[in-house]
Amino acid sequence: MENRSLREQIAAMRQSFLDEEILDTQFIQLEELSDKDEPSIAEEVVTLYFRETTELLPTLEEDMKAIPIDFPKLDRILHRLKGNSASIGANKVRNEINNTMALLEEGNVEGAKAAFEQVRKEHETLKAKLETYFQALLTQLRLPSEAVALKLEIGAGMKDLASHQAYYSCPMINYI
Amino acid sequence: MATAAAVLPSGSQELHVLAVDDSHVDRKVIEKLLKISSCKVTAVESGTRALQYLGLDGGKGSLGFNDLKVNLIMTDYSMPGMTGYELLKKIKQSSAFREIPVVIMSSENILTRIDRCLEEGAEEFLVKPVKLSDVKRLKDFIMRGETEENGGSRVNKRKLEDDGHPPLSSSSLSSSSSSASAPSSPSSPLSPPPSTSTVAPFACDLGTTELPTSPLHSSKRSKFCNSD
To answer: Are A33 and B26 within 8 A, CB to CB?
Structure first.
């Protein structure tokens, strides 16, 4: 494990995301959108996601404590959160949102609050893991010998390697 | 798709798509999917902005001064303020823009919602997250629509079913937005509503400088015939 190249570690990370169902194939589709015009688009989209969701979550938490609860408003915000999560392939986050919405629909507010805690947990976990992942990608691409290998690695699943070269050049990963 | 790219003689003939979505994440993704498919994209965040862009809000809009005629509108269904459905209705009520195909995107696969949109004139209802294959298929469909309008029976037979309509039930279409293909025929995506005239409903207004009529169509026809 120790002597594994960074490239292998990245591939292992990606695979574990899928195996653990933290992310689904939509994330892979996102990565496959990279091309020479927008080499780090996956990271950019993910950054947008966390920027938006990091704002939404505290609002949701407040709204769930409100008396009386504005159910339609909660539903709208949760729906939006769910949609965005689906767009980046955030599988577990999305599932927990579904649970929360179902419980709210039943009128089980306490249950929904507990489910929402799970949403926050999964969201935090995902954020941490993706930060590590994109950081590794960045580091990896700064190693000249590895850069070519990485292109091949990510490109293995793509039909047209020539037009979808995945080389990341985005300097900073900042989800805040 | 290579076929569609070969058909367009120059960059100015690219499809121009107006994408409407309140989610920044989704806007970025759909924009990229369209760019990868060689389409020009204008992405806006609301139905109101979309109408402003088209000039349907009473203002001049951004069209008309250059060659950025809109060939397709893709809109999210659930948006604050004006929903995608309401936007669809406004566009179909407009004599200037009703011929522009409108596609609704939604993360929810609700049959009544799908039916309502298709009845109101939407060309298709895509379930999110939208895939590259959805966009490529859509683009191909729009391009084909223009060819059909001009004696499409001579077009590559593979693309046409017996009834002269595009092969909506073919496997390539049912694989994407699989939930949308589940509904019965009145709401099957891409099928022209019964009330349509002989002109294909999805045909874009081709009376523009950007898309010349006969020269482009005859070249497109022959290219379709010669390809695969």
So the answer is: no
